[in-house]
Write a structure and sequence with these properties.
The protein has 3 domains: 222 residues, 3-Layer(bba) Sandwich (FAD/NAD(P)-binding domain); 112 residues, 3-Layer(bba) Sandwich (FAD/NAD(P)-binding domain); 113 residues, FAD/NAD-linked reductase, C-terminal dimerisation domain (Enolase-like, domain 1), CATH 3.30.390.30. Helices cover 32% and strands 25% of the residues. By secondary structure, the protein is α/β, with parallel strands linked by helices. The longest helix has 26 residues. The chain binds flavin-adenine dinucleotide (FAD) and 1,4-dihydronicotinamide adenine dinucleotide. The site of flavin-adenine dinucleotide (FAD) has 36 residues, from β2, α2, α3, β4 and α9.
Length: 487
């Protein structure tokens, strides 16, 4: 037991927790961060899901596999002949692992630099001393327990993959995200259950490397969270990809594994029984909040019916001086949302400690961007057309296709479009929807426009470099008032 009383104890060192810890320390708060993650070699590794088995490794493999796909299928159009091109999956995976270890070690350095104390182990919230208002947290590492004390606690314990009861993960044949990122051989036949973000990204990686990929999705539609027109375009582009099949409206009946394959029985959208036999099966049907061992009952922390820690708009839980951020609370399960909440809570704690009012502006989820790193990429911010219609909001729309954009033509990636939705009366931008090359980067301009309450005319007034992909955003904004120039 240490007698030190920290200003803040953060439980979890994913993008919610480690960013919160660094910001707390920057603000002069004495901060400890407790994290239990161990990598495949059994070593403590900071960064949570995002750095270890999420955002970073998936993007590393997406980049490698896209390079291979480009050389194999697209370079000929540029007049570049490449013979004997081969994939070395272990090298690809080792490159991905090196990126991960560089970044996870980078967080350890950032903790050191900012004087955040880093403890390895599982943090369990115990109780708050009624007179001193100090929280007790047990930190258990391999059977050794240490008790730490802190005035404020930030829970940032993230999420874990949701398993399908019919197909529990074994990471041999039935893979979660970690298993899907660790394959060392390209499976000939890959099945994916769930056409969500992970299913599409991981399916893309292994398809580009040569797997025959079949994605089975329960919902009748495709990418139902996206703007309908974007989802339609995505489905039509993906349908033309060699080696990819997406079946929606399916119902999984049974999943059987053998030493050599996985057999999935399902009924299709027409209620016909179907059988899919694959070498590996990725199950990516969403993620669930992680509160295992957190001390929910010991501390009387309130969870909702789906297991999320209940918080208000300022990330305050039901417990005094205990906050929760990131995937373990409501809202999109995105790294940048987790980090934004982490910073907001750190700054609120500083205000509380300084005797200032705790509350300022709450985080606006409407200006949090979404990106799906398929090819073409998909990105959006704000409301889509179906949401505006459902809410009865009158809007104008401007759209520009990449096929009419000079830079997209030069790159050779002409699928997709950018659409700007603006309020019918005020012209304020309500949503921007993109599918096409590098829209993961282009979306930031739309986020900034919305954050600054820009009108479509404001965007139309900004000079965009020529030739650039960003001109498609400019033209889409011009299109809101029917004055696009190149279409
Ligand atoms: P996490 O990153 O899950 O971190 C929680 C940490 O807390 C973990 O280290 C865990 O071990 C630790 N922990 C849990 N309980 C305890 C305890 N009791 N004591 C101590 N430690 C504990 N998001 C994006 O924005 N962009 C992307 O491109 C993207 N790609 C993704 C790809 C994949 C394959 C996956 C699975 C996710 C992806 N995400 C992406 C989502 C993103 O990873 C999460 O939204 C983000 O990691 C959430 O951050 P967090 O800090 O809330 O939780
Ligand atoms: P998801 O919620 O994106 O998609 C899950 C899909 O599985 C849905 O389409 C759902 O209808 C389907 N599904 C659910 N049960 C099913 C069943 N029994 N049979 C068939 N289909 C079923 O969840 P996913 O892909 O697991 O990702 C989890 C979260 O991780 C994402 O929502 C996102 O927040 C985050 N993430 C973000 C990324 C990014 O920002 N680029 C990349 C990867 C993950």
């Amino acid at each position: 037991m240490t007698s030190e009383i920290f200003d803040v104890a953060v439980i979890g060192a994913g993008p919610g927790g480690y960013v919160a810890a660094i910001r707390c320390a920057q603000l002069g708060l004495n901060t400890v961060c407790v994290d239990e993650w161990k990598n495949a070699r059994g070593k403590a590794s900071l960064g949570g899901t995002c750095l270890n088995v999420g955002c970073i490794p998936s993007k590393a493999l997406l980049e490698s596999s896209e390079n291979y796909f480009q050389i194999k299928h697209k370079f000929a159009a540029h007049g570049i002949a490449a013979e004997g091109v081969a994939v070395d999956v272990p090298v690809m995976v080792a490159r991905k692992d090196k990126i991960v270890t560089t970044f996870t070690a980078g967080i350890a350095s950032l903790f050191k630099k900012n004087k955040v104390k880093s403890l390895h182990g599982r943090g369990t919230l115990l109780s708050q001393d009624a007179s001193t208002e100090i929280w007790q947290i047990a930190v258990n590492d391999n059977g050794t327990t240490e008790t730490i004390h802190a005035k404020h606690v930030i829970i940032a314990t993230g999420s874990v993959p949701r398993s399908l009861p019919l197909a529990p993960f074994d990471n041999e044949r039935i893979l979660d995200n970690a298993g899907a990122l660790a394959l060392t051989v390209v499976p000939e036949r890959l099945g994916v259950i769930g056409a969500g973000v992970i299913g599409l990204e991981m399916g893309s990686v292994w398809r580009r490397l040569g797997a025959e990929v079949t994605i089975l999705e329960a919902m009748p539609g495709f990418l139902m969270a996206a703007d309908e027109q974007v989802a339609k375009e995505a489905k039509s582009v993906f349908a033309k990809e060699p080696g990819l099949q997406i079946h929606t409206g399916i119902n999984i009946k049974s999943v059987k594994t053998s030493a050599t394959s996985v057999v999935v029985q399902y009924s299709d959208a027409n209620n016909q029984e179907q059988v899919l036999e694959v070498d590996k099966l990725i199950v990516a049907i969403g993620r669930i909040p992680n509160t295992t061992g957190l001390g929910v009952s010991e501390s009387a922390l309130v969870l909702d019916e789906r297991g999320f820690v209940v918080v208000d708009e300022f990330c305050r839980t039901n417990l005094s001086q205990v906050y929760a951020v990131g995937d373990v609370v409501r809202g999109p399960m995105l790294a940048h949302k987790a980090s934004e909440e982490g910073v907001a809570v750190a700054e609120m704690i500083k205000r509380i400690e300084s005797g200032e009012p705790a509350e300022t502006e709450a985080i606006d989820f409407n200006t949090i961007p979404w990106v799906i790193y398929t090819a073409p990429e998909i990105a959006w911010v704000g409301k889509n057309e179906q949401e505006l219609k459902a809410a009865g909001i009158a809007y104008k729309s401007g759209q520009f296709p990449f096929i009419a954009n000079g830079r997209a033509r030069a790159i050779g990636e002409t699928s997709g479009f950018i659409k700007v939705l603006a309020d019918e009366k005020t012209d304020r931008v309500l949503g921007v929807h993109m599918i096409g090359p590098h829209v993961s980067e282009l979306i930031s301009e739309a986020v900034m426009a919305m954050k600054f309450s820009a009108s479509s005319e404001d965007i139309a007034c900004i000079v965009h470099a020529h030739p650039s992909l960003s001109e498609a955003f400019h033209e889409a904004a011009l299109g809101v008032d029917k004055r696009a120039l190149h279409i």
